[in-house]
Design goal:
Blueprint (H helix, E strand, L loop, with lengths): L1 E5 L4 H12 L3 E6 L8 E5 L4 E2 L9 E4 L12 H23 L7 E7 L10 E2 L9 H11 L2 H5 L3 E7 L1 E3 L4 H4 L1 H6 L12 E2 L1 E3 H13 L5 E5 L5 E2 H12 L9 H8 L2 H6 L3 E2 L2 H5 L9 H9 L2
Parallel strand pairs: 1-2, 1-5, 2-3, 5-6, 6-8, 7-14, 8-12, 9-11
Antiparallel strand pairs: 3-4, 10-13
Helix pairs in contact: 1-7, 2-3, 8-12
């Protein structure tokens, strides 16, 4: 199968491309420069340009590109970059795919559990409405931007992703060196829920979405049992055999992270109902197992 990936140099894109190639699939990467070979396609999400012709023959497209939510302090300018990188890029890609004489069978668009906003202790699945706040609004626009692909008859899946447990990158990756140094601790009061997923399971789930023809619309990519921040902290301490004695006060997070602090301190208890109902099985369903799997990479 010929499969195109945006965001192929990121944590998830790199792992997905490696997994697909290992099984003999042809991977085509969308790059923000002139293409340098048959395995690259030029695109520019800011200008909403995609070399659509170069995507001919792709049976699946996995869209993972977007400015990192936790990469920088949230200023007004960076919040605009987060929104534009997702909404404009998705719209450009969806329109390009819809223009093809033979479009791909499936578009898997990576979005986020931020769609649900702060759910407190309430567990939610894909039937829940969007929440409030900046990330929830971005997620709504992000998914709406894929409408041209859906209208062209392309099976479109929205992979609403939680916190990916990995050492190589992402928000959780930043925790490993802190906890290894014995400087880890809960954030805020620690009662907020974290919906996590092991990197291995995330890649397996993306491939499941590609290969399951009756799946479309939103699918939560989170482990079956979300944990509180306090529980995640305890698990990191347990698995890494390090103390977790240094809680981070909410006020300090607000100074360092800006508006993003409200999302770190917020609670999202998200369940993967549609993923489980479709027959997917997790290799690392608990937070201890997910952390342990990350350490073996």
């Amino acid at each position: 199968m010929r499969i195109a990936i945006t965001g192929s140099t990121g944590l998830i894109g790199t792992a997905l491309a490696r997994s697909l190639r290992a099984d003999g699939h042809e991977v085509v990467r969308l790059v923000r420069r002139r293409a340098q070979g048959p395995d690259e396609v030029e695109w520019d999400p800011k200008r909403q340009y995609v070399d659509a012709g170069a995507l001919a023959g792709c049976e699946a497209v996995v869209h993972l590109a977007g400015a990192g939510v936790g990469d920088r302090r949230w200023t007004a300018a960076y919040k605009k970059e987060i929104r534009d990188s997702r909404v404009l890029g998705t719209a450009a890609l969806a329109e390009a795919l819809a223009s093809l004489d033979v479009p791909p069978k499936v578009l898997v668009c990576g979005t986020a559990v931020g769609y649900y906003g702060d759910t407190g202790t309430r567990a939610v699945d894909e039937s829940a409405p969007p929440g409030e706040g900046f990330l929830a609004g971005v997620c709504v626009e992000w998914e709406e931007a894929a409408a041209p692909a859906q209208e062209a008859g392309i099976r479109t899946v929205f992979a609403r992703t939680g916190l990916v447990v990995a050492r190589e990158g992402g928000a959780w990756g930043k925790l490993f060196p802190i906890f290894r140094a014995g400087l880890g601790g809960r954030m805020g009061n620690g009662r907020q829920y974290w919906s996590f997923i092991a990197l291995h399971d995330h890649i397996a789930a993306l491939r499941h979405l590609i290969d399951t023809p009756d799946l479309s619309g939103p699918v939560n990519l989170t482990a079956p049992d979300p944990v509180t921040n306090r529980e995640a902290t305890a698990a990191m301490s347990r698995v890494l055999h390090r103390p977790a004695l240094f809680p981070v006060p909410a006020v300090a997070l607000r100074v360092v992270l800006g508006d993003f602090a409200e999302d770190v301190l917020g609670s999202q208890r998200v369940l993967p109902r549609r993923l489980l109902d479709s027959g997917f099985r997790f290799a690392f369903p608990t937070v201890d197992e997910a952390i342990g799997a990350a350490l073996k990479k």
